Amino acid sequence: MTLEASSLWLLKRVTGIQVHWLYQLGANTPHGGQSRGMPADARHHQFIDVAGFDGLPEEHARAIAGHTGRSPRRLLREGGRIHALESNGRIVSQLNVQFGEFDVSTPIPLRFCLPSDAFFVSFLYTPPAERGHGYAQILLRHACEALFQEGYGRAFCHVRSTNLASRQAFRRAGWRPAGGIVSSLSGRLVGTPGVGRGLGISPVSASSGDA
User: Fold this and answer.
1) I need a surface site. Which of 19, 80, 110, 160 has the fewest CB within 10 A?
2) Top-tier CATH class for 3-205
3) pLDDT by residue (tens digit) across 132-156?
């Protein structure tokens, strides 16, 4: 029984816990399935600083800011990046990228410590009206390829076990399970089964104010 299957079996029998899958993509991992190419009218944006983000048209900046989980400018000032796919003058998919040591708020406040050759993808979002066109997979591929070309060797993400659409999007893009994050509904980290060495995941202290 795989880690995913065994954890789902456990979830059916134990109340009060939730599971997020951790997925990994290597720089040399082939993409699964039939990857869609970049549409002729699409454009991939990568924002690495506030000045670049502030150069966006106002409607694009608003669309992106509504789904970054925190202020885009704060994310960029802290060393993160934002990738977006534009098509026909609209933002049709977006995601965040973070490096090194940073905090996340889901499933509970956690601190991630990544190896120097890795980056973390989060807040992958496609507006409801744009779904079904493969935009999320296209953006994932182009964002990761851009970072792999910079010399990074691995990408990580985590997805709630019940979010089947996101899990399928990552799996179709070639991502594979790299462990799990099990937490209680009351906000306690239960464990990180299957997570290998080199990747640190720890609870954020309530007194730290960094959650």
Assistant:
1) 160
2) alpha beta
3) 888 988 999 999 999 999 999 999 9
